[in-house]
Design brief:
elongated, mainly alpha, 9 helices, single chain
């Protein structure tokens, strides 16, 4: 970082202390001691560096996935166990994208969620995460398990044995 950026960050922090008071920063300090919160904060800060800006420095409108990530951060601070599951779900459906978009839509419909008319994966993932954030822990864990299983089914067996089965089964079909 250069000195100009460092000075800007310090100035912005001073404005935040003035706006929110020192008690808020003491609470933040205690939250940072929580390892789950620290991991989530680290992820959010890394992603914040990739947010597009216009030439005047104004950020683009928040997407549903950004709102869901912010909500997950808040939940992680107050309920680390739920926050960890939500973070895992976020990685599974929004970052790794191992579940095809159509499969996400089908899963949401089968699970009784509102029907998603959009085909935009980020919107679907953001809305699903927002809905998951309101669920009790047992239901949240059930969705996490189901989506992990769906991810594994969609991803297929990519092991050496899995590829061998695909190659040899394909050859048998061609020659047989």
């Amino acid at each position: 970082m250069n000195e100009h950026i460092d000075a800007e960050l310090i100035y912005d922090l001073a404005k935040l202390v003035q706006k929110h008071g020192p008690e808020a920063f003491e609470k933040l300090g205690s939250l940072l001691a929580n390892s789950a919160f620290s991991l989530e904060l680290s992820r959010v800060l890394r992603e914040a560096g990739t947010i597009d800006s216009d030439p005047n420095g104004a950020r683009k409108k928040h997407s549903s996935i950004t709102k869901a990530r912010n909500r997950i951060s808040e939940i992680t601070a107050s309920d680390p166990e739920r926050g960890t599951i939500l973070t895992h779900l976020h990685e599974l459906i929004a970052i790794n994208k191992t579940v095809p978009t159509e499969s996400l839509r089908d899963y949401a419909n089968r699970s009784g969620m509102p029907r998603f008319s959009t085909s935009d994966r980020q919107r679907i993932a953001g809305r699903m995460l927002s809905l998951f954030a309101d669920l009790p822990l047992d239901q949240l864990q059930k969705h996490a398990d189901n989506l992990k299983r769906l991810s594994e089914e969609s991803h297929g067996d990519r092991s050496l044995q899995g590829w061998a089965n695909i190659i040899f089964d394909g050859n048998r079909k061609k020659t047989g």
